[in-house]
Design goal:
The protein is an alpha/beta fold. The protein is built from five helices and eleven strands. The strands form three sheets. The protein has a seven-stranded mixed beta sheet, with helices on both faces. A two-stranded antiparallel sheet has the order 4-5. Helix 2 packs across helix 3. The longest helix is centred in the middle third of the chain and has 22 residues. The chain starts with a strand and ends with a helix. It binds D-malate. D-malate binds next to helix 3.
């Protein structure tokens, strides 16, 4: 159940924990600098995806670009959710204080967590996310705040796909903010600024 990961405690006990979920070919170190830009002083939990696609780490298998192995995705989502719960118990933080920050493949597994195991996240920032799966039973997301930051010119994620994801999460109960960037699949400075402001507003509540 364990993942190779980076853990950094928050500057103050009980502070927020950013769950960093990298994209295909990334690792547990990739998004650590982003954590400091989004919310200085937050703790960090950054696992490395266990699936290898031609040597590139991912969080679940895919059959082709944008076509997911749903059985594997369900299994990996459960495994990641159990890892978050176990780490929270070990390190003494609440899963309510966990803010997922995922990019691409990492955003897709964060979306799956929201749809299948919403209790392990307090909030989520999804950069370049798709619909990961359609859950078998209607999920109940407890008003979890979710930011989707996608690119208008993304060749991998269409506007319709993004709207479908926002609608699915909203219908399940999430409090979704959808932000469009004038960009493709890569992360931009605008994404970081948007996410930083969104996280700060949420923390101030
Ligand atoms: C995925 O496989 O999760 C998406 O195609 C995004 C990617 O990792 O390229």
């Amino acid at each position: 159940m364990d993942f190779i990961h980076v853990f950094q405690p928050p500057a103050s006990p009980g502070g927020p924990i950013l769950l960093l979920l990298h994209g295909t070919g990334g690792n547990e170190h990739d998004l650590v600098p982003l954590a400091g830009m989004l919310l200085p002083g937050a703790g960090v939990l950054s696992p490395r995806g266990k699936v290898l696609e031609r040597g590139m780490p991912r969080f679940f298998r895919r059959l082709a670009e944008g076509v997911f192995d749903i059985e594997d995705l369900k299994l990996r989502t459960a495994e990641l959710a159990d890892f978050i719960t176990a780490t929270a118990a070990d390190r003494g933080f609440s899963t309510r204080d966990v803010i997922a920050v995922g990019f691409s493949n990492g955003a897709n597994i964060a979306g799956a967590l929201l749809l299948v195991r919403p209790e392990v996240l307090g909030a989520a920032v999804l950069f370049r996310a798709m619909v990961p799966l359609i859950p078998e039973k209607q999920p109940k997301i407890p008003s979890t705040p979710v930011l989707i930051s996608n690119g208008k010119m993304d060749p991998l994620v269409s506007a319709e796909e993004t709207e479908r994801l926002a609608a699915l999460l909203r219908f399940a109960g999430a409090d979704v903010t959808l932000s469009w960037q004038t960009s493709g699949h890569d992360l931009t400075e605008r994404d970081v600024i948007t996410a930083r402001e969104w996280v700060a507003q949420r923390q101030a509540r």
